[in-house]
Amino acid sequence: MIRRLTAMVALGVLVLTASSAKADDQEKFQGVWKADKAVEGGMETSANEVSKMSIEFKGNKAIPRRGGRTEKDAEFKLDSSKSPKTIDIKEQGSTTVLGIYEFDGDRLKICFAKEGGERPTKFKSPEGSKISYFVLKKQTK
Predict the structure, then answer these.
(1) What is the domain extent for residue 110?
(2) Number of domains in the chain
(3) Beta pairing, strands 43-44 & 53-58
(4) Distance set, CA 34 to CA 23, 116, 125, 139 (Å)
(5) Fewest CB atoms within 10 A around its CB: which of 4, 84, 113, 129?
(6) Quick one: which H or E segment has residue 126?
(7) Distance of CA 8 to the CA centre of its chain
(8) Helix/strand/coil for 16
């Protein structure tokens, strides 16, 4: 009886810890992030273009902006239990884009495969690949 109770308590703590970690990352995403760096297919985007890029995370929505123009929003889903942590992004009516993410202070690194590619395993965008890599900086109000 005590063993069962101990096992149930341990399982409950594990479930609460996992969902708390997920909620923490979901909360960290919230707000506006400005691009610091953008690399697509191994080609670094010009500083002028990068300065125009931002994304707002609101609830489970990602709302990208380029040059003040709002682009098509998407839903995102996080899994902080994996290593590296994973993010799935889905625009309405399109395929799910598979990615990874990592927080580094007030910066967020996101790397994802475009056009239905396999989820990246490293934060880099090799030349000629369909992988995009972004470093974003959290904007304060």
Answers:
(1) 2-138
(2) 1
(3) unpaired
(4) 22, 25, 19, 7
(5) 4
(6) none
(7) 33
(8) helix
